[in-house]
Amino acid sequence: MSEVTVARVGDQGMVLLRGEITALDGVLGAVGLPVPEPRRIGRGGGRAVAWMSPDEALVLCPADEARDVAARMTEAAGDAFVTVADVSDARAVFDLRGPWADEALAKLTPADLAAVEEDEMRRSRLAQVAGAFWREEGGWRIVCFRSVGTYVHDLLDNAVAGGPLAPA
Amino acid sequence: MTARLPRGGRRIDRSRSVEFSFDGKPMRGFVGDTLASALLGRGQQVMGRSFKYHRPRSVVAAGPEEPNALMGIGTGARFEPNRRATVQELYDGLEARSQNAWPSLGFDVGRVNDWVSPLFPAGFYYKTFLAPRVAWKHLFEPVIRKAAGLGAAPEGADGDRYEQAYAHCDLLVAGGGIAGLAAALAAGARGERVIVMEQSAHWGGRAPTDAGEIDGMAPDAWVEDAVARLGGMDSVTLRLRCQVAGVYDHGYVLANEGLTDHRADKAGPRERLWRIRTKKVVAATGALERPLSFAGNDVPGVMLASAVRDYVDLWGVSPGDRTVIVTNNDDAYLTAKVLVRAGLSVPAIIDARPAPDSAVVREVKALGVAVHAGRGIAKVLGRDKVAGVAICLIDGEGAVLQEIKCDCVAMSGGWSPVVHLWSHCGGKLTWDADRAMFVPDLDRPPLGADGVGFVACAGAASGAMTTGAALRDAHAAAGGEGEAPQAEDEAFDLEPVWQMPRGAPHKLRSKAWLDYQNDVKVSDVRLAAQEGFESVEHTKRYTTLGMATDQGKLSNINGLAILADSLGEPIPQVGTTTFRPPWTPVTIGTLAGEARGDLFQPLRRTPLHDWHEAHGAHWEPVGQWRRPYCYLRDGETPEQAVHREVLATRNGLGLLDASTLGKILVRGPDAERFVDMLYTNKVSTLKPGACRYGLMCDENGFLIDDGVAARIDEQTFLCHTTTGGADRIHGWMEDWLQCEWWDWKVHAVNLTEQFAQIAVVGPHARTVLERLGEMDVSKEALPFMRWAEGEIAGIPARVFRISFSGELSYEVAVPASRGLELWEALHREGADLGATAYGTECLHVMRAEKGFIMIGDETDGTVVPQDLGLDWAISKKKDDFLGKRGQERTHLSDPDRWKLVGLETLDGSVIEDGAYIPDAGRNANGQWNVQGRVTSTYHSPTLGKGIAMGLLRHGPKRMGEVVKLTRIGKEPVEARVVSPVFYDPEGERQDV
Amino acid sequence: MLILRCPVCGVDACETELAPGGEAHLERFGPGSSDEAFEGYLFVRANPKGVHLERWRHAMGCGKWFLAARDTATMEVLGTYGAQTEAPPADIQSKIEEASR
Question: For the domain bounded by B497-569, which CATH number is listed?
Answer without folding.
Answer: 1.10.10.1100
